[in-house]
Each structure stands twice: as C-alpha cells, then as structure tokens.
Specification:
Length: about 350
C-alpha cells in the first residue's frame, strides 16, 4: 500500500501528450485513461510523457511508437521504442506499463537509500524490499521489454536488434465512406456507400452499394413506356501502400447490377426484375485530412458477363443490357481502428 501511494505521488505531475493527435493507434484519450488508471491522477506540472508514431521506410520498413519521459527541468529520463502490434489498446497498455516501471524504479532507489547508513539493519526489513519488484508485472505482459533509462543515452545492441526484428503490423481498421458519383447506367448524379476493412498494412476488403439517381427510359408505340432503375453492388480485394497522407489503391472483385423494369400502357402497368453479374476492377486515391477523416476518389469498371433475363414488352426486347458497368465517385469517409 505504501509503495502504491508513493508511485501515485511521483506521478501526480505527469502529463501525457503526443505531437500527432490525429493518430488512431494508440488514441490519445485512451492512452491518457490507461496511464491514469495505472498511475493515478495526471496533473499539470512535473513529468511529461510524449509518444510519437513513427513510420520508417527503406530496406527494413517498420511502424513503431517512440516514447520519451522528460522531467520538470527538461532532462530526458526515459526513451523507448514500442512496436505497433495487432491491438492499439495493447500499445496504450505498454506505454502505461513502461511509465509505471520507471516510477517503481525511483521508488525502489528512494526506499533503499536510508538503509545504507544503518549499522545493523533488521533482516525482516531487508527481506521485505525484494518483494516490491517489477518482474511480476513483466510476466503479465511478456511482450513489453523493460524500459531504457537515460543515462546511458544509447540502447544496448541486443535490444536494438530485437526492436529491428519485431514485426510491424497495421491496426485493424474499418472505414465508412459516402460518395457522389456518375454511373454508366443512367445520366445524372448518383450516390454510393462504401465499407472497407483492413487485413494488413497493404491488403483490405471493400464492399460498395451505388445507386444511380436517374432512370433508363424509352417511349414505345401506342403511348406505352418502359423505365428501369438499378442498384450496383460490388465487393473487391484491395491493395495499397501509404505515402505520407496519401494512399493509392487498386482492387479486383465482382459486381452485381440489380434492375427493376416498369412497363405501362393506357390502363395497365407491370414490373420485371433482372440481375447481372461479372468481374470488376477498381482503383482510387485516398488523402487523410486528420482525426480519422479522409477524402477518397475512386473509379470502378465491371463487365456483366451473365444476366438472368431480358426485359420484354409485347414480345419485343426493350431496355437491353449494357454490358459495361462503371462509375466514378468522389467522397468523404471516416476510419475507425480497434
């Protein structure tokens, strides 16, 4: 109990911040809550813990979080590089754990200083000191290596080697987009709702539903008419690489066009339905504008290789199927990581 109160007292003036507040992994609010839950109140003065998300490219690309702890005099007391794993919450837990270990080290050093001038320390008091050891904490999270304290300013060679060899995996991401578009089915504007889920740093799965707001229409003899509307459904496996805030992507998948045809003449009308399926390719360009929001420009092109039926009126085909199915759209989206 006394050790816990001492750690909380040391961490009263701890400020947790990041120069990249728009980053989602780990989220700043979640990180502050996790540190607060482990160390206690986060004050306005004293220590400042800053973490930065770093994307290194080159021969050995990797993503990691750089953590630094600075005291009130501006001296760097701790520096650590934490690999970004499968869970963003685990990164926040790792930051809190490294900070807790550092303050535990200060408490251990402060507790051991009064014992040195003691001429005949009591064995019971000496034996109680090793019980306050950070090792049981490390067994709970074996993936978080012990903190690197300054000085020395450089990491040990074996620690640097371990960090370089650690795999860097992208956080799972779910993105929702709303597009305005132009569709080949009918002239005029349209709209689309697009979902994307990341499988890795470069691969993802995308689903989209597009609706042309216009109709295909045809006037028939004797005052009759035909009109058709459609819904465009697509699914694709996408690939893309990040270049700063830009992320171009390409994809391949399938497209399904569902049409409803309405036909009428003087005093009567009826409806028919048609489904067409075929391969689809898509390409796009995504620009991140901050706090999970982004702008997306996408184009899709498919081919209706199979169709369920033709639309007919009085035995004659009408509104024949256009095999190419394409659209281009510009939209805005929001990404969520977990």
């Amino acid at each position: 109990m006394g050790l816990t109160l001492t750690i909380l007292a040391l961490a009263q003036g701890l400020i947790v911040d990041t120069p990249s507040p728009d980053a989602l992994c780990p989220d700043l609010t979640r990180t502050r809550e996790t540190v607060h839950a482990r160390l206690g109140e986060v004050g306005e003065e004293g220590y400042r813990a800053t973490y930065t998300i770093v994307h290194e490219r080159g021969d050995n690309p990797k993503d990691f979080v750089k953590l630094e702890l600075v005291d009130s005099a501006g001296a760097v007391r701790l520096r650590r590089e934490l690999p970004i794993g499968e869970s963003c919450s685990a990164v926040a837990d790792a930051i809190a754990l490294v900070l807790e270990r550092y303050f535990r080290t200060l408490v251990d050093d402060a507790a051991s200083e009064p014992l040195e001038p003691e001429p005949t320390p009591e064995p019971a008091h000496q034996e109680s000191l090793p019980s306050v050891d950070p090792e049981p904490v490390s067994t709970q999270r074996a993936s978080v290596p012990p903190p690197v304290l300054l000085p020395p300013s450089a990491d040990a060679p074996e620690q640097a080697t371990r960090r370089r060899s650690a795999p860097a995996a992208a956080p799972a991401e779910f993105a929702l987009e709303l597009h305005g578009l132009a569709h080949s089915f009918a002239p005029g504007p349209g709209g689309a709702l697009r979902f994307q889920h990341s499988l890795s740093q470069s691969l993802g799965i995308a689903w989209a539903a597009a609706v042309p707001f216009g109709y295909r229409e045809k006037l028939l003899p004797n005052g009759s008419w035909a009109r058709a509307g459609a819904v465009d459904l697509r699914a694709a496996l996408t690939w893309g690489s990040r270049a700063g805030a830009f992320r171009p992507f390409v994809g391949i998948g399938v497209v399904a066009l569902l049409e409803k045809g309405s036909f009428g003449s003087v005093g009567s009308s009826f409806s028919r339905y048609r489904a067409s399926v075929g391969p689809n390719v898509e390409a796009g360009w995504r620009f991140e504008i901050g706090r999970g929001w982004f702008v997306n420009l996408a184009a899709c092109a498919g081919w209706a290789a199979w169709s369920s039926s033709d639309f007919q009126f009085e035995g004659e085909p009408v509104l024949t199927l256009d095999r190419p199915i394409a659209y281009a759209g510009l939209g805005v989206g929001r990404a969520f990581s977990f």
